[in-house]
């Protein structure tokens, strides 16, 4: 008898092919001959989704078991990237599906390319949250990610005449097969209004909050599949809807706008992601977004806990809640409101629970990125929370007063309320007071936190402070984005490295092996050729795959110093112009990254890159020895072919400014060598790969502080460094701007008169280091050995290692393997 597999779960190639055809017919409602590629993508996506459902529902069943402790990761951003590819890999069905799609007359690559990525984040912080969610599932840790389901994610970037132009990110226009709406789990969120004290039926003093507006929060669940495990955790993203989507009375009175204004107002709440990556905007809608998803999340957790028969006094034993920077920090006040006002726990008991529940991760030292809300705004939007924050502050300062013997200056510095001028609520302080653990994201950063922005808290609670150096998931950032290198690695050391990245160290044995070196080089060459073909097709720029691919991809920001990279390019260009026969190593400089729309200097940095590119790429004297490319719309999808293709990874931020970086890890993992400063995780990468396999340059954090204290005058460096002066003068002359001397004046002036990020001070060391890079690249075997050793020694920088540390030191949770019960 013919064995027919279940259409929904079967993994036979014929069953998969039939399931795709069925979903195309029944879900997309299309005949194959008229179906679009997107229809086939949707049909395939639903076919794959069916196959993860048993894991997902059995994992969810676990959450409800009272004895199961769950990690809740609260983040305003989750930069997930496309789903289909990583789900095929983590389910272990990639080759089966590739065959089934081929049997349907299509190519899997073409369907993968159809997916609109959910760009629900800006950069490092959002992507880290996504890597951590994937590692939590792979490590079989029960976890829920809580965030916002923005209707419009990070803008799409187009370059028009070399300038960034933002285009709305309509990621939901064709629907999203990877989410399930859960209207039955909606919760209500209040805003504005006033509070009222009253005595309850037990005669206890109580406060009620009479809101001005109520909005409905509707959750949408997305499965996060672990690698080769049954655990499939939930990412619960909240969408705002009108509590009353249509006001019939208003309509009857002919007030048609009134009938829907609530709907418009409410839905505006989760309409769009704020595209700022560091500079603060302090807009009311931003605070509303933060409070909205935090209240939804905490109400959801309390419902789950009580649903499992839990007592709220043990809430912290059920949930370990991590605050991903200060964006969800209002959670400290919201949990107190829910426990005290709604569930009538005594203040002290509630505070005990609250502090034991929260952990806080800081991701930036930039003063302009530390969130503080004007008191009037905060008080008018969240009147009850302000009262609670006053109470928390009172009790905290009483404690601090004892410790600091009434040092009022110190108390003012510690206070949750900044009383220095305009009055503000300091969200980082609220997070520190309300959490039992505070961590930075790289050793240097965590040290700087204790010495600078949070030093007073460190003095008060040294035991709370920890370091958790960032990590990246090897499933997306090696197995998925670099299948050829992954295969070479697996052929030599087996497959364990995918979940035990430390296993890569076994590659050290092959670092000098000539045949292995040849294969390693061949794969890098092939990946570079692919990127060259992509750039030729999409940007019509011909690049030489044998040139040194020198890549800097990350958000555009002055502290990341993309403009220092440009100064190197112009310096090389001037060398060629001075002596056209000069023998330089052919280089392809590749940039990518979005600028926050309101960040003028960052936008000017993009323009100077594209302007230099236009001149250098078309200058016959250069004759292709240098090419400069700005890859538009840098996002997760577009970054995946870039990390594997790099020879050189640019990590050149001013020491003390980049909290960690994670791109630096992705590059090294894929065999790129790093040119970088002693900043963020560069320090630990250099320690891991060996100083001899890392191109270090620049001022250390101590030297930066000394120079700034001793009075830094960039003009002196400009004057006494001929190559630097010539490069800056060339920009200033209008040479790259069709003679327009005004265009880049703001950039040049900021450098020669102010230079807050010390580019001019680091210029000479950078150029010298780049010359060393060029020489080393000529020594092919040496470079290949260094490249192999870089990959071999990146095991520590797996997000699995980071998550194991969070589980052990902050969340105190242990893995639970999921049984697939029918
Ligand atoms: C209020 C606007 C805003 C938005 C985002 C942020 C994030 C904290 C910025 C961010 O993404 N920081 C990056 O976080 C990464 C993950 O830890 C680090 O690797 C980067 O060094 C850090 O810049 C700050 C301020």
UniProtKB/TrEMBL annotation:
It is an enzyme of class 2 (transferase). InterPro entries: Glycg_phsphrylas, Glyco_trans_35, Pyridoxal_P_attach_site. Transmembrane segments: none annotated. It catalyses: [(1->4)-alpha-D-glucosyl](n) + phosphate = [(1->4)-alpha-D-glucosyl](n-1) + alpha-D-glucose 1-phosphate. One of its GO terms (cellular component) is cytoplasm. GO terms for molecular function: glycogen phosphorylase activity; pyridoxal phosphate binding. Keywords: Carbohydrate metabolism, Glycogen metabolism, Glycosyltransferase, Pyridoxal phosphate, Transferase. Its cofactor is pyridoxal 5'-phosphate. It comes from the Bacteria. PANTHER family: GLYCOGEN PHOSPHORYLASE, GLYCOGEN PHOSPHORYLASE, LIVER FORM. Belongs to the glycogen phosphorylase family. Phosphorylase is an important allosteric enzyme in carbohydrate metabolism. Enzymes from different sources differ in their regulatory mechanisms and in their natural substrates. However, all known phosphorylases share catalytic and structural properties. This is Alpha-1,4 glucan phosphorylase. It comes from Halomicronema hongdechloris C2206.
